[in-house]
Design goal:
Blueprint: H1 2-16, H2 23-41, H3 43-48, E1 50-52, E2 57-59, H4 63-88, H5 92-116, H6 123-132, H7 139-164, H8 166-180, H9 194-225, H10 230-236, E3 249-262, H11 264-268, H12 273-293, E4 297-302, E5 305-310, H13 313-333, E6 341-358, E7 361-367, H14 369-384, E8 388-391, H15 392-396, E9 406-413, E10 419-425, H16 431-439, H17 441-452, H18 456-469, H19 474-489
Parallel strand pairs: 6-8
Antiparallel strand pairs: 1-2, 3-5, 3-6, 4-5, 6-7, 8-10, 9-10
Length: 490
């Protein structure tokens, strides 16, 4: 008895020193010890109350025996709870050992008893032989009881291993989700043991680092899009900037838009260097978002100008209209500065999208005669005093369902002595002026054709008719003056 008290005292001391133990576990431990000691003491009264009769057992417990039974049952309940909590605290290898060793020992003892029960003597052995229907002549029942005990043993093993492997199953699911990158939570719960807690911490660190890298990659991609637009990647058939290699190129039909901020040079001479940059950027910050909004992207910034690319010409026409209107609104907010305007030239043709430079410095760009033609068109735009002009190639690819007002303003020479017709978009003018220009469209275009055919007197008459209704039509004014000059020189 002294040894029992000494053992339980030492056990309680060891468990109580475990600072990581839950309070509920400590309470169960105390209750287990408190019920186990009297259960052991009263155990002899329980044994005395069980009497073999030869055909069975008779149970006749006195008060102490009943108390002993209750304490044994309660003690076993607390012991089972502590046992499973003990298993949770172990490493997986120890958990398997401590879970299977007691069960295997019980199974071995049971098989030993069943196999050798006929060799035992005494009233208890005789009673067990009768209950199990096992005799020296009836070995078949002995085999059945052995098979039954074995089945119970394997079922118990299956239940225990299922319980033990639950953390492993959780770990497998978390690892799969972590590999697929679909984990959103920051904390994992796998098991209670220190080993699984360490695994949880490691997985949480991996998950945190993965999310940090993912956020960093996303942020880097967003920042990189400011230098290499996503639409440019789509033209090259790439999904990531890291996929770009020197020499990557593809030829596609596209529409280029050249936008020049007019009068910004004269304004810049009155500003400091910092004010000049802020002034130009304030207008570019208006133009660039509109380009992206209409499906295009900025290929490059050219001082106070922009070269943009669109998949379709109608997108560029629509964007040009909104750019002109947005700059008008911007001018009103910058009343302290002279007004600026936009001259926009649009052309459609074959464009090579590619990566140029060297391995240490790569740059995306477009290479095409379209860009050169857009530059020539800009000179025409400037000379004619127009705002938005586009080529015949762009007009041919605009779907018929897209309706807008425009007029023919002349032709420009391209390669191989060929010419291409140019048109002015009338959408950027106020409605009253636009309606007049649309009404006088045939007069204006007839004047242009007469001018091209050197019929300067007829051309002069046509443009004079237009100016009589729209006196501020700059294109008509330019043509009218040119016709007059031609007539004087002749």
């Amino acid at each position: 008895m002294k040894n029992i008290f000494l053992c339980t005292k030492n056990t309680f001391f060891l468990f109580s020193q475990n600072k990581s133990m839950k309070l509920s576990t400590k309470i169960y431990l105390v209750l287990y010890i408190v019920t186990m000691i009297p259960a052991i003491v009263l155990g002899k009264y329980v044994i005395e109350g069980i009497t073999p009769t030869g055909t069975g057992f008779s149970f006749n417990f006195n008060g102490l025996g009943i108390a002993g039974l209750v304490l044994i049952a309660v003690s076993n309940i607390f012991g089972t709870i502590l046992y499973f909590r003990f298993l949770k605290m172990q490493k997986l290898s120890r958990m398997i050992f401590f879970a299977t060793a007691p069960l295997t020992a019980i199974y071995g003892v049971g098989m030993f008893i069943i196999a050798g029960i006929n060799n035992f003597s005494g009233q208890t052995a005789a009673t067990m032989q009768v209950l199990l229907n096992v005799t020296n002549k009836n070995t078949y029942n002995t085999l059945l009881w052995g098979v039954l005990l074995t089945l119970v043993y394997f079922v118990a093993l299956f239940v225990i291993f299922s319980y033990i492997c639950r953390p492993v199953q959780k770990l497998e699911k978390i690892a799969q989700r972590l590999g697929d990158g679909v984990i959103r939570e920051d904390k994992f719960e796998i098991g209670k043991s220190k080993q699984f807690k360490n695994i949880e911490n490691s997985l949480e660190k991996i998950n945190f680092n993965y999310k940090e890298k993912e956020n960093m990659a996303r942020q880097t991609d967003l920042e990189a899009q400011k230098f290499i637009p996503r639409q440019f990647l789509k033209f090259l058939g790439k999904t990531s900037i890291s996929d770009l290699e020197l020499g990557n190129q593809v030829q596609k039909r596209a529409t280029t838009l050249f936008c020049d901020i007019v009068s910004s040079s004269s304004v810049s001479t009155t500003l400091s260097l910092e004010e000049n940059f802020n002034f130009i950027n304030s207008y570019l910050n208006v133009v660039s978002p509109l380009i992206r909004k209409h499906g295009g992207f900025v290929d490059k910034y050219l001082g106070d100008g922009i070269l943009a690319v669109f998949p379709r010409p109608e997108q560029a026409i629509e964007c040009a209209t909104h750019i002109c209107r947005a700059i008008e609104v911007k001018n009103k907010s910058h009343s302290s500065f002279p007004n600026v305007d936009a001259r926009i030239s649009i052309h459609t043709g074959e464009v090579i999208f590619g990566i140029v430079g060297e391995e240490a410095r790569k740059s995306p760009t477009i290479i095409s005669d379209v860009v050169n033609l857009a530059s020539k068109m800009e000179d025409i735009n400037k000379m004619m005093g127009t705002k938005v002009i586009f080529s015949k190639d762009s007009l041919n690819e605009i779907p018929t369902k897209y309706q807008f007002d425009y007029r023919y303003i002349g032709s420009i020479s391209v390669e191989n002595a060929e010419t291409t017709s140019l048109f002015e978009s009338l959408e950027i003018y106020p409605k009253k002026k636009r309606d007049k220009l649309v009404h006088l469209k045939s007069n204006f275009e007839e004047g242009v054709r007469n001018f091209n055919e050197h019929e300067y007197e007829k051309a002069k008459t046509c443009f004079k008719q237009v100016l009589s209704y729209v006196s501020d039509d700059k294109a008509s004014y330019v043509y009218y003056n040119h016709a007059c000059d031609k007539l004087e020189n002749n």
